[in-house]
Amino acid sequence: MNLRRAIAVVAVTGLGTAFSGVVAEAADRPKLTISCSKAGFTGSVAIYGRSGPNGFGGTAPLADITKVQYKIKKPNGGRTERNDVFVHYRPDLEQPELRYRVAKSGDKALADNKWHSLRLESDSTKTKHPDFLVEFIFNTPDKDPRCTNHKRL
User: Fold this and answer.
1) What pTM does this model have?
2) Which of 153, 140, 134, 142 is nearest to 50 (CA)?
3) What are the protein's UniProt keywords (predicted)?
């Protein structure tokens, strides 16, 4: 009888470990990815957040942001350094001028087609279904091309 209880405890513990691994893997996927292109450059932003009562789409009047990353693919001959990335959220699309900055690169974003983290300036939104707005300014020898895009969560 004691041996059966021990086997059951090991089996349950093993399942718990497997499930927590699956949850951790799912939590590391972005909630939202936004991209835009201009003059042969393509910029992408991945926004990670927590789901649940205090997360995106939850019951609380805000959403928690845990990480923001960017990636820039440059055309042949394009410059790798000194690009800009800005990430904002808008709580209300009927007031597009009302926006809050989530993260920015400062004139330091790299165009190496690899994911890089941005320092968060804000880690929560004032609405559970925010509209995220991204802007890229790509560094070129001439006038720097820019592109913007947005997506609502």
Assistant:
1) 0.76
2) 153
3) Signal
